[in-house]
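Next up, sample data.

:::
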Amino acid sequence: MGNSEIILINISGDDQPGVTSAVAGILGKYNATILDIGQADIHHTLSLGILFKTSNSFDAANILKEVLFKCSELNLNVRFTPISIPQYNEWVNRQGSGRYIVTLLGKLITAEQLSIVTKAISEQELNIDSIKRLTGRPSLENLNDNVRSCIELSVRGDLKNKDQLSSQFMSYASELGIDISFQKDDMYRRNRRLICFDMDSTLIQTEVIDELAEKAGVGKKVRAIKEAAMRGEIDFNESFIKRVALLKGLDESVMEEIAQNLPIMDGAKRLMTILKKYGFKIAILSGGFTYFGNALKKQFDVDYVYANELEIVNGKLTGKHLGEIVDGKRKAELLRLIAQFEKIELEQVIAVGDGANDLPMLNLAGLGIAFHAKPKVKENAQQAISTIGLDGILYFLGFRDIHMNE
């Protein structure tokens, strides 16, 4: 009877029922302890790995013999690798290293894209523990506008330079035409509870104030004020007050007509349905108007709406607003207040927006996502989605298509 032995079994070949059960049965027969196990099935091809420990070399020899016979019977390839105690201890000690999730999302993921991203990971001396496909299997024939591909890499190691890697990923995303998310894999990432959306150009495919201005015949003037604000000549609040003043006299019926025909952002309905199903609280924090936020609240069962209130007297806009202006700073304050009220940690909050005035809340939330945003906004946000619709957020949360279609 010799000392205990640690052995890694790798089995590959055509997938078939009962393989794992058969191998586990042999290990159980000799009271082996399973130290680690992993299995993948790619195009009906099985890859199974089991790391086990036996109490003596006699049992180990019998296990190897029986597993070899069983794999021969099932027409499977098998490889045995002895693992020394120092090797095993070194591997165990690495378990305490940082853990991260890298998500690649786009219409299609190419080998070149994967090569570039994984090279950046290896340059940081990080190891890839596992790779999962979150999207369904792509058809070669029925290609449509809704096609998307997403893979998730579980990565481990002591990260040398997080800012450098994040910057690389943001640059690669722009150059390669994909979205790359880099998140710490912790309890908060697995337990997000609140999501806060900007409204205009995020939940809806328009800027409502521009539509109101067109109806009021002041579209050109409103755009000029907005462009001046973007150049930094006036701040958001001054710009807001000037633009709203130009809407004076517009009939409330125009607002009602626009509210009933809001162009919903691609993927928004799917995203909202699934988030509600899984118990998320949903908030709209907008520099737009409550009139339209409330229309979306009814449509999507939103929990909170905070936006700007337009003053209406005798069915017409007065050109004034009521209450405090919801600007970037106020959005971040509201996000914090809602999280406190709901007893949710900031790390569990997601924020989504497209504009510079969304950056304060994007950077306050545990997961801030710049959605189809301008380059400057993307550069200053934690994560970005530019390739598909709003439901792309679900992949950043680790949802798989199979979960979304239940």
